[in-house]
Amino acid sequence: MLPFTECVDLLKAVGEPTRLRLVLLLSQGDLTVSDMVTILGQSQPRISRHLKLLSEARVISRYQEGAWAYFRLDDGAAAGLVQCILPTLDLLDPMLTRDAERLELVRRERAERAADYFASNAAQWDRIRSMHVPDAETEKALQAVLGDEPYGALLDVGTGTGRMLELLAPASARALGIDASREMLAIARAKLDSSNYSHVTVRQGSAYHLPADGGKFDLITLHQVLHYLDDPANAIREAASVLSPGGRLVIVDFAPHDCEFLRTDHAHLRLGFSDETLNGYFEGAGLALEAGQTLPPAGKTGEELTVLIALARKPANALPGEHLRSAQLA
Protein backbone atom coordinates (compact mmCIF):
# COMPACT_ATOMS: atom_id res chain seq x y z
CA MET A 1 0.00 0.00 0.00
CA LEU A 2 1.06 3.58 -0.63
CA PRO A 3 1.18 6.12 2.19
CA PHE A 4 -1.41 8.85 1.69
CA THR A 5 1.09 11.57 0.81
CA GLU A 6 2.88 9.35 -1.72
CA CYS A 7 -0.45 8.51 -3.32
CA VAL A 8 -1.24 12.21 -3.68
CA ASP A 9 2.21 12.87 -5.17
CA LEU A 10 1.75 10.06 -7.67
CA LEU A 11 -1.65 11.34 -8.77
CA LYS A 12 -0.21 14.84 -9.15
CA ALA A 13 2.66 13.46 -11.21
CA VAL A 14 0.47 11.61 -13.71
CA GLY A 15 -2.32 14.18 -13.62
CA GLU A 16 -0.85 16.29 -16.43
CA PRO A 17 -1.43 15.63 -20.16
CA THR A 18 2.16 15.15 -21.31
CA ARG A 19 3.14 13.03 -18.31
CA LEU A 20 0.08 10.82 -18.67
CA ARG A 21 0.95 10.31 -22.34
CA LEU A 22 4.50 9.37 -21.33
CA VAL A 23 3.23 6.86 -18.79
CA LEU A 24 0.96 5.28 -21.41
CA LEU A 25 3.85 5.01 -23.87
CA LEU A 26 6.14 3.44 -21.26
CA SER A 27 3.45 0.91 -20.40
CA GLN A 28 4.11 -0.51 -23.87
CA GLY A 29 7.86 -0.92 -23.44
CA ASP A 30 11.12 0.81 -22.51
CA LEU A 31 12.02 3.98 -24.41
CA THR A 32 14.84 6.50 -24.63
CA VAL A 33 14.42 10.25 -24.26
CA SER A 34 15.05 10.56 -28.00
CA ASP A 35 12.21 8.11 -28.70
CA MET A 36 9.80 10.12 -26.58
CA VAL A 37 10.87 13.43 -28.14
CA THR A 38 10.15 11.96 -31.58
CA ILE A 39 6.78 10.52 -30.57
CA LEU A 40 5.41 13.49 -28.66
CA GLY A 41 7.00 16.16 -30.85
CA GLN A 42 8.22 18.17 -27.87
CA SER A 43 11.69 19.46 -27.03
CA GLN A 44 14.23 17.34 -25.21
CA PRO A 45 14.44 19.68 -22.17
CA ARG A 46 10.66 19.64 -21.81
CA ILE A 47 10.45 15.84 -22.02
CA SER A 48 13.37 15.47 -19.59
CA ARG A 49 11.65 17.73 -17.06
CA HIS A 50 8.47 15.63 -17.19
CA LEU A 51 10.50 12.42 -16.85
CA LYS A 52 12.29 13.86 -13.81
CA LEU A 53 8.95 14.56 -12.09
CA LEU A 54 7.68 11.07 -12.88
CA SER A 55 10.92 9.56 -11.56
CA GLU A 56 10.72 11.55 -8.34
CA ALA A 57 7.19 10.22 -7.80
CA ARG A 58 8.52 6.68 -8.45
CA VAL A 59 6.15 6.20 -11.35
CA ILE A 60 9.04 5.43 -13.71
CA SER A 61 12.67 4.40 -13.35
CA ARG A 62 15.76 5.06 -15.42
CA TYR A 63 18.60 2.71 -16.33
CA GLN A 64 21.75 3.14 -18.35
CA GLU A 65 22.95 0.97 -21.23
CA GLY A 66 26.28 2.23 -22.52
CA ALA A 67 25.77 5.77 -23.78
CA TRP A 68 21.96 5.40 -23.89
CA ALA A 69 19.53 5.90 -21.02
CA TYR A 70 16.22 4.02 -21.03
CA PHE A 71 13.06 4.64 -19.04
CA ARG A 72 10.48 2.11 -17.93
CA LEU A 73 7.47 1.99 -15.63
CA ASP A 74 8.56 1.36 -12.08
CA ASP A 75 7.40 -1.96 -10.64
CA GLY A 76 7.34 -0.72 -7.06
CA ALA A 77 4.42 0.28 -4.85
CA ALA A 78 3.10 2.82 -7.37
CA ALA A 79 2.67 0.23 -10.11
CA GLY A 80 -0.71 -0.98 -8.89
CA LEU A 81 -2.26 2.48 -8.94
CA VAL A 82 -0.79 3.24 -12.37
CA GLN A 83 -2.21 -0.01 -13.75
CA CYS A 84 -5.63 1.01 -12.42
CA ILE A 85 -5.47 4.37 -14.20
CA LEU A 86 -4.29 3.30 -17.65
CA PRO A 87 -7.21 0.97 -18.56
CA THR A 88 -9.64 3.87 -18.03
CA LEU A 89 -8.10 5.87 -20.90
CA ASP A 90 -9.90 6.10 -24.23
CA LEU A 91 -7.24 4.84 -26.62
CA LEU A 92 -9.27 6.13 -29.57
CA ASP A 93 -8.63 9.70 -28.45
CA PRO A 94 -7.01 11.43 -31.46
CA MET A 95 -3.93 12.51 -29.49
CA LEU A 96 -3.34 9.06 -28.04
CA THR A 97 -3.92 7.50 -31.45
CA ARG A 98 -1.22 9.74 -32.94
CA ASP A 99 1.15 8.76 -30.11
CA ALA A 100 0.51 5.08 -30.81
CA GLU A 101 1.12 5.58 -34.53
CA ARG A 102 4.41 7.39 -33.90
CA LEU A 103 5.50 4.71 -31.42
CA GLU A 104 4.85 2.09 -34.09
CA LEU A 105 6.86 4.15 -36.58
CA VAL A 106 9.84 4.36 -34.19
CA ARG A 107 9.73 0.60 -33.68
CA ARG A 108 9.31 -0.07 -37.41
CA GLU A 109 12.34 2.07 -38.27
CA ARG A 110 14.44 0.13 -35.74
CA ALA A 111 13.21 -3.17 -37.13
CA GLU A 112 13.98 -2.07 -40.68
CA ARG A 113 17.55 -1.10 -39.73
CA ALA A 114 18.04 -4.52 -38.16
CA ALA A 115 16.48 -6.26 -41.18
CA ASP A 116 18.84 -4.40 -43.53
CA TYR A 117 21.79 -5.45 -41.39
CA PHE A 118 20.78 -9.13 -41.39
CA ALA A 119 20.03 -9.12 -45.12
CA SER A 120 23.46 -7.68 -45.85
CA ASN A 121 25.31 -10.07 -43.53
CA ALA A 122 23.37 -13.34 -43.76
CA ALA A 123 26.00 -15.12 -45.87
CA GLN A 124 28.74 -14.37 -43.35
CA TRP A 125 26.60 -14.46 -40.21
CA ASP A 126 28.26 -17.45 -38.55
CA ARG A 127 31.67 -15.79 -38.92
CA ILE A 128 30.40 -12.45 -37.58
CA ARG A 129 28.79 -14.10 -34.57
CA SER A 130 31.95 -16.06 -33.74
CA MET A 131 33.95 -12.81 -33.74
CA HIS A 132 32.16 -11.77 -30.54
CA VAL A 133 31.08 -15.09 -29.00
CA PRO A 134 33.19 -18.20 -28.28
CA ASP A 135 30.83 -20.58 -30.09
CA ALA A 136 32.29 -23.91 -29.02
CA GLU A 137 32.48 -22.97 -25.33
CA THR A 138 29.01 -21.43 -25.40
CA GLU A 139 27.41 -24.46 -27.02
CA LYS A 140 29.11 -26.81 -24.58
CA ALA A 141 27.88 -24.74 -21.64
CA LEU A 142 24.37 -24.56 -23.12
CA GLN A 143 24.15 -28.34 -23.41
CA ALA A 144 25.39 -28.69 -19.84
CA VAL A 145 22.71 -26.30 -18.56
CA LEU A 146 20.00 -28.18 -20.48
CA GLY A 147 21.19 -31.53 -19.15
CA ASP A 148 19.57 -34.82 -20.11
CA GLU A 149 15.93 -33.80 -19.64
CA PRO A 150 14.07 -34.82 -22.82
CA TYR A 151 12.10 -32.41 -24.97
CA GLY A 152 9.71 -33.51 -27.68
CA ALA A 153 8.98 -30.18 -29.35
CA LEU A 154 11.65 -27.51 -29.87
CA LEU A 155 11.19 -23.89 -30.97
CA ASP A 156 14.20 -21.74 -31.86
CA VAL A 157 13.22 -18.07 -31.92
CA GLY A 158 15.45 -15.92 -34.13
CA THR A 159 17.00 -19.03 -35.61
CA GLY A 160 19.24 -17.10 -38.03
CA THR A 161 21.28 -19.61 -40.02
CA GLY A 162 19.87 -22.48 -37.97
CA ARG A 163 22.82 -23.31 -35.72
CA MET A 164 20.68 -24.02 -32.63
CA LEU A 165 18.49 -26.35 -34.70
CA GLU A 166 21.57 -28.22 -35.88
CA LEU A 167 22.75 -28.54 -32.28
CA LEU A 168 19.51 -29.38 -30.47
CA ALA A 169 17.01 -30.73 -33.02
CA PRO A 170 18.49 -34.26 -33.14
CA ALA A 171 17.18 -34.84 -29.59
CA SER A 172 13.65 -33.60 -30.47
CA ALA A 173 10.67 -35.19 -32.17
CA ARG A 174 9.57 -31.90 -33.75
CA ALA A 175 11.57 -28.72 -34.23
CA LEU A 176 10.72 -25.32 -35.68
CA GLY A 177 12.91 -22.30 -36.31
CA ILE A 178 11.45 -18.79 -36.64
CA ASP A 179 13.24 -15.77 -38.07
CA ALA A 180 12.21 -12.44 -39.62
CA SER A 181 14.98 -12.52 -42.26
CA ARG A 182 14.31 -14.37 -45.51
CA GLU A 183 18.03 -14.29 -46.28
CA MET A 184 18.90 -15.99 -43.00
CA LEU A 185 16.17 -18.60 -43.49
CA ALA A 186 17.46 -19.46 -46.97
CA ILE A 187 20.81 -20.41 -45.43
CA ALA A 188 19.14 -22.30 -42.58
CA ARG A 189 17.04 -24.33 -45.04
CA ALA A 190 20.09 -25.25 -47.09
CA LYS A 191 21.90 -26.43 -43.96
CA LEU A 192 18.97 -28.49 -42.72
CA ASP A 193 18.30 -30.01 -46.15
CA SER A 194 21.88 -31.22 -46.34
CA SER A 195 21.53 -32.80 -42.88
CA ASN A 196 18.31 -34.66 -43.77
CA TYR A 197 16.38 -33.42 -40.75
CA SER A 198 12.88 -34.36 -41.88
CA HIS A 199 11.33 -33.36 -38.55
CA VAL A 200 12.78 -29.82 -38.64
CA THR A 201 11.20 -26.86 -40.40
CA VAL A 202 11.88 -23.12 -40.54
CA ARG A 203 9.53 -20.30 -41.37
CA GLN A 204 9.42 -16.55 -41.45
CA GLY A 205 7.85 -15.02 -38.38
CA SER A 206 8.13 -12.60 -35.49
CA ALA A 207 9.36 -13.14 -31.94
CA TYR A 208 6.26 -11.22 -30.86
CA HIS A 209 3.79 -13.50 -32.68
CA LEU A 210 4.89 -17.11 -32.33
CA PRO A 211 3.03 -19.99 -33.98
CA ALA A 212 0.91 -22.21 -31.78
CA ASP A 213 -0.98 -24.05 -34.52
CA GLY A 214 1.19 -27.16 -34.14
CA GLY A 215 0.86 -27.33 -30.36
CA LYS A 216 2.95 -26.16 -27.42
CA PHE A 217 6.72 -26.50 -27.14
CA ASP A 218 8.76 -28.27 -24.47
CA LEU A 219 11.91 -26.23 -25.08
CA ILE A 220 12.25 -22.73 -26.54
CA THR A 221 15.61 -21.14 -27.30
CA LEU A 222 16.56 -17.50 -27.84
CA HIS A 223 20.23 -17.65 -28.75
CA GLN A 224 21.83 -14.21 -29.13
CA VAL A 225 18.43 -12.72 -30.00
CA LEU A 226 17.22 -10.54 -27.12
CA HIS A 227 19.74 -7.75 -27.69
CA TYR A 228 18.29 -7.17 -31.18
CA LEU A 229 14.72 -6.78 -29.91
CA ASP A 230 12.93 -3.53 -29.21
CA ASP A 231 10.79 -5.14 -26.50
CA PRO A 232 12.55 -8.15 -24.89
CA ALA A 233 9.95 -8.48 -22.12
CA ASN A 234 7.17 -8.88 -24.68
CA ALA A 235 9.16 -11.52 -26.56
CA ILE A 236 9.63 -13.55 -23.37
CA ARG A 237 5.93 -13.28 -22.51
CA GLU A 238 5.10 -14.48 -26.02
CA ALA A 239 7.50 -17.40 -25.70
CA ALA A 240 5.94 -18.34 -22.36
CA SER A 241 2.49 -18.35 -23.97
CA VAL A 242 3.48 -21.18 -26.37
CA LEU A 243 5.52 -23.09 -23.79
CA SER A 244 3.99 -26.31 -22.48
CA PRO A 245 3.37 -26.66 -18.72
CA GLY A 246 6.66 -27.67 -17.20
CA GLY A 247 8.45 -26.56 -20.38
CA ARG A 248 11.71 -24.65 -20.43
CA LEU A 249 12.93 -21.40 -21.99
CA VAL A 250 16.67 -20.90 -22.40
CA ILE A 251 18.29 -17.57 -23.22
CA VAL A 252 21.86 -17.10 -24.39
CA ASP A 253 22.96 -13.47 -24.50
CA PHE A 254 25.43 -10.98 -23.07
CA ALA A 255 25.83 -9.62 -19.57
CA PRO A 256 25.80 -5.80 -19.40
CA HIS A 257 28.71 -4.21 -21.29
CA ASP A 258 29.84 -0.90 -22.81
CA CYS A 259 30.73 -1.98 -26.36
CA GLU A 260 28.94 0.82 -28.21
CA PHE A 261 30.30 -0.41 -31.55
CA LEU A 262 27.86 -3.30 -31.38
CA ARG A 263 25.01 -0.78 -31.38
CA THR A 264 26.39 1.39 -34.17
CA ASP A 265 27.95 -1.29 -36.39
CA HIS A 266 25.97 -4.45 -35.65
CA ALA A 267 22.37 -3.32 -34.96
CA HIS A 268 22.31 -4.26 -31.26
CA LEU A 269 19.53 -2.41 -29.46
CA ARG A 270 20.49 -3.55 -25.95
CA LEU A 271 23.97 -3.73 -24.48
CA GLY A 272 23.45 -6.88 -22.46
CA PHE A 273 21.14 -7.90 -19.61
CA SER A 274 21.61 -8.01 -15.87
CA ASP A 275 20.41 -10.83 -13.61
CA GLU A 276 17.80 -8.45 -12.18
CA THR A 277 16.48 -7.54 -15.62
CA LEU A 278 16.17 -11.15 -16.76
CA ASN A 279 14.49 -12.16 -13.50
CA GLY A 280 11.98 -9.36 -14.01
CA TYR A 281 11.25 -10.56 -17.54
CA PHE A 282 10.78 -14.14 -16.37
CA GLU A 283 8.56 -13.24 -13.44
CA GLY A 284 6.42 -11.03 -15.66
CA ALA A 285 5.90 -14.02 -17.96
CA GLY A 286 5.07 -16.45 -15.17
CA LEU A 287 8.38 -18.28 -15.42
CA ALA A 288 10.95 -19.12 -12.76
CA LEU A 289 14.69 -18.90 -13.36
CA GLU A 290 15.94 -22.39 -12.62
CA ALA A 291 19.60 -22.43 -13.63
CA GLY A 292 22.18 -20.18 -15.19
CA GLN A 293 25.79 -19.77 -16.03
CA THR A 294 28.16 -17.03 -17.11
CA LEU A 295 31.20 -17.70 -19.26
CA PRO A 296 34.57 -16.00 -18.77
CA PRO A 297 34.86 -12.72 -20.70
CA ALA A 298 36.20 -13.08 -24.23
CA GLY A 299 37.15 -10.73 -27.04
CA LYS A 300 39.72 -8.10 -27.86
CA THR A 301 41.12 -5.93 -25.10
CA GLY A 302 38.55 -3.26 -24.36
CA GLU A 303 35.83 -5.23 -26.19
CA GLU A 304 35.46 -8.16 -23.79
CA LEU A 305 31.99 -9.68 -23.62
CA THR A 306 30.56 -12.02 -20.99
CA VAL A 307 28.09 -14.58 -22.30
CA LEU A 308 25.28 -15.58 -19.97
CA ILE A 309 22.95 -18.56 -20.16
CA ALA A 310 19.64 -18.46 -18.29
CA LEU A 311 17.20 -21.38 -18.07
CA ALA A 312 13.65 -20.70 -16.89
CA ARG A 313 10.73 -23.07 -16.45
CA LYS A 314 6.98 -22.71 -16.75
CA PRO A 315 5.52 -24.40 -13.67
CA ALA A 316 3.01 -27.13 -14.40
CA ASN A 317 0.55 -25.67 -11.90
CA ALA A 318 1.41 -21.94 -11.84
CA LEU A 319 -1.53 -19.61 -11.26
CA PRO A 320 -2.14 -16.90 -13.90
CA GLY A 321 -0.11 -13.81 -13.03
CA GLU A 322 1.62 -15.54 -10.13
CA HIS A 323 4.99 -14.02 -9.29
CA LEU A 324 7.62 -16.68 -8.82
CA ARG A 325 10.80 -16.63 -6.79
CA SER A 326 13.77 -16.92 -9.12
CA ALA A 327 17.22 -18.33 -8.70
CA GLN A 328 20.37 -16.33 -9.37
CA LEU A 329 22.74 -16.80 -12.26
CA ALA A 330 25.89 -18.67 -11.32
- Looking at the structure, what is the overall shape? globular
The order of strands across the largest sheet is: 6-5-4-7-8-10-9
* Beta-strand share of residues: 15-25%
The total count of strands amounts to 10
Derived from helix and strand composition plus strand pairing, the structural class reads: alpha/beta
Query: Which residues sit in consecutive blocks of at least 5 with pLDDT less than 50?
Result: 319-327
Domain HTH arsR-type: 1-93
Organism: Aureimonas fodinaquatilis
Family: Belongs to the methyltransferase superfamily.
GO biological process, one term: methylation
Description of the molecule:
Belongs to the methyltransferase superfamily. The chain is of the alpha/beta class. It has two domains: 4-89, Orthogonal Bundle (Arc Repressor Mutant, subunit A), CATH 1.10.10.10; 122-313, 3-Layer(aba) Sandwich (Rossmann fold). 43% of the residues lie in helices and 19% in strands. It is built from 13 helices and ten strands. The protein has helices spanning 4-14, 17-26, 33-40, 44-56, 79-85, 94-121, 125-132, 135-146, 163-168, 182-195, 232-241, 261-266, 275-284, and strands at residues 31-32, 60-65, 68-73, 153-157, 174-179, 200-204, 217-223, 243-254, 288-294, 307-313. The strands form two sheets. A seven-stranded mixed sheet has the order 6-5-4-7-8-10-9, sandwiched between helices. Strands 1-3-2 form a three-stranded antiparallel sheet. Helix 9 (163-168) links the parallel strand 4 (153-157) and strand 5 (174-179). The chain is globular, with a radius of gyration of 21 Å. The two termini are 34 Å apart.
